[in-house]
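Treating backbone geometry as a discrete language has practical consequences that deserve illustration. The amino acid sequence and the backbone structure tokens for this protein are reproduced below.
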Amino acid sequence: MCHCGMFSANKRQVQLARPMLLLLHATVGGIAMEHTPSTNQYCRLNAPVRDHDGRIHFQEHPRVLRKVSNLDRQMFLVQFEDGATTFLFPDEVTLY
């Protein structure tokens, strides 16, 4: 078990020979989160969104890096063309 501040990850499911099968269970601030393997899926933004640096994105088609389940909510970690990342809810994007 690795402890880094408020983040702890269970490494027993990490398979180095098969990285696409990585399923990471983590606890952040006492809340359990589940991350799915990396995807090669893209999405279209349904409305303008702001990344963590405050830049607004709309006309882009970001890549879905991960699907995250947190408190029975689904979220997507997406990466924009400029490399910025942010979490979006399913109603904010259309997957293709």
Remarks:
- The CA atoms of residues 6 and 29 lie 6 Å apart.
- Confidence is low (pLDDT under 50) at residues 1-29.
- The chain has two domains: 1-36, 38-96.
